[in-house]
Write a structure and sequence with these properties.
Number of strands: 2
Strand order of the largest sheet: 1-2
Shape: flat
Order of helices and strands: HHHEEHHHHHHHH
Distance between the termini: 82 Å
Helix content: over 70%
Number of helices: 11
Radius of gyration: 22 Å
Largest sheet: 2 strands, antiparallel
Structural class: mainly alpha
Length: about 260
């Protein structure tokens, strides 16, 4: 009996509690993702016009970076005037990292990897946000899945990568704003996240502003006004290069803002 007890103590469970939690959280996500992307992500992408523009942008940036030339102007588009690519809705802050990744991966793999990363970021951010208010883990997972894969986001898969990343990062901005604490880390992270969103897409300017305004309206106070001012300043510094490139492109193209 003593031998059997000692042997039983040595037998490890098949899955640890941490592994079980990981499987419960991520298996539904993986199943939905695989169901909706039944093609080879290394060589294939979904067929849609907007997606071809992003693919072209990634290849254009890679080509010019490999020759140390300027990718911000494409003379053959809208010839003979040409086109300033920084004015494109898929901003340079998005196309630049895609172009850099294209040095090492096929362009289809780059795009599909950016897609998957956006959905993972949305799922993780929404889970964190919901756990601020909901105790039931199953309900957190369910609502996070519904947000991550709802039609308005799922329909952005073939080409509108900027809007996917916008809606993904907004969950993290909301979590940072509404979690407990008023320290400098909260202000810093909120400003950095908002700045990254604006760098990816200018839609982030007003959508982030709406979220910050809602944060203040929930509990108006002088402390929150100071926080919002600091967050806006940090976000402005982070997004300044992208905003300047966009402004310069519109000015050179004689396009009204």
């Amino acid at each position: 009996n003593l031998r059997s007890v000692s042997m039983a103590r040595k037998v490890m469970p098949i899955f640890s509690s941490r592994t079980k939690a990981f499987l419960v959280i991520w298996c539904p996500f993986i199943l939905v993702w695989l169901w909706g992307t039944r093609y080879n992500p290394w060589t294939q992408v979904e067929a849609y016009g907007d997606l071809l523009e992003v693919i072209w942008g990634a290849k254009w940036y890679r080509e010019h970076l490999s020759h140390f030339s300027n990718p911000l102007f494409a003379p053959h588009i809208f010839y003979p005037e040409g086109w300033h690519t920084a004015a494109y809705s898929q901003a340079a802050g998005l196309l630049l990292p895609l172009g850099l990744l294209h040095f090492f991966l096929p362009v289809a793999a780059v795009y599909n990897g950016a897609l998957l990363a956006a959905f993972v970021v949305a799922y993780m951010g929404m889970r964190r946000f919901l756990r601020l208010y909901i105790l039931e883990h199953w309900l957190v997972i369910l609502v996070a899945l519904l947000y991550t894969f709802w039609g308005l986001r799922w329909g952005r898969k073939p080409g509108q990568l900027n809007l996917l990343w916008l809606s993904s990062l907004l969950t993290w901005l909301g979590w940072v704003l509404l979690r407990e604490g008023t320290g400098w880390r909260k202000v810093l992270w909120a400003g950095v996240i908002w700045g990254v969103i604006v760098t990816i897409t200018l839609y982030g300017l007003w959508m982030g502003a709406v979220l910050l305004a809602a944060y203040w309206l929930v509990n108006p106070s002088l402390v929150r006004i100071k926080q919002l001012a600091a967050i806006s300043a940090i976000a402005g510094l982070v997004s300044l290069p992208g905003l300047w490139l966009f402004w310069r492109a519109t000015q050179m193209a004689d396009a009204p803002l």
